């Protein structure tokens, strides 16, 4: 695996003022907003279901659950599909981590919006004037982001929540999404077997919501007492979706290799695995060439410099004489 070798080697009712890049302020409440769209990115920018098994309780927090498997389905929709990417960032990393996302994989989404904690004049950066901020209130930030997106952007089929140190291979994501319909409730990502009968998907690895899953999430937040604040947004979102009956799908390929990765590239490819990755993923994490699907979708904790390196290796280099056709069939149903 040339690519793998080289990378290893390189080693509510509360008011929200949404301030757009043009300085316009939307007085946004949980019940209603003014319809406003951020400006598009310029070409160049200096900024930058099957039936589940019964739940088996193994301890206070950990659960075991058999997730429906995407590869057991036939493709449901042709490529391409529309994806809106929601990237969490901060004023401290806007010109470093967020810039790298914008320069690389963010350009391959149908729409990418960065959400930050300070006003900015940069296009496609949205400041949510939060009453609460900081890592202890990530759930508040993410809930308000989803509420804002649900009101402002109704034309997209899928919504990817990612951090500014997540790297996403959009072509593989689009292929994976072809096994689903966006008008069905779908929740995808690296699943950790904790807190609910179907676990929750890692926020750092990035997780996907279909349009219908987003509708159900907003309904749960407004009417079903889902958490609106807390420090573990991915856990809180997972709990809310579970209460609304949104299924978590197995995101491994037909060789049982993971596509979403909550650890670093080094963690997954060469190890050692962290205690979290050893114990909690619903699909046990592996190291070496079986760590990752050939149709891998995400990695976490990717530095800005590594994002540019990954982009060059993935989109500008090939191995002479290599036949890539077999590696493109990691999700093809066996005949």
TrEMBL record:
One of its GO terms (molecular function) is glycoprotein-N-acetylgalactosamine 3-beta-galactosyltransferase activity. Keywords: Glycosyltransferase, Membrane, Nucleotide-binding, Signal-anchor, Transferase, Transmembrane, Transmembrane helix. The lineage of its organism: Eukaryota, Metazoa, Spiralia, Lophotrochozoa, Mollusca. Pfam families: Fringe. It is found in: Membrane. It comes from Mytilus coruscus (Sea mussel). The keyword Transferase applies. Pathway: Protein modification; protein glycosylation. It is a single-pass type II membrane protein. Belongs to the glycosyltransferase 31 family. Beta3-Gal-T subfamily. It comes from the Eukaryota. This is N-acetylgalactosaminide beta-1,3-galactosyltransferase. GO terms for cellular component: membrane. Its EC number is 2.4.1.122.
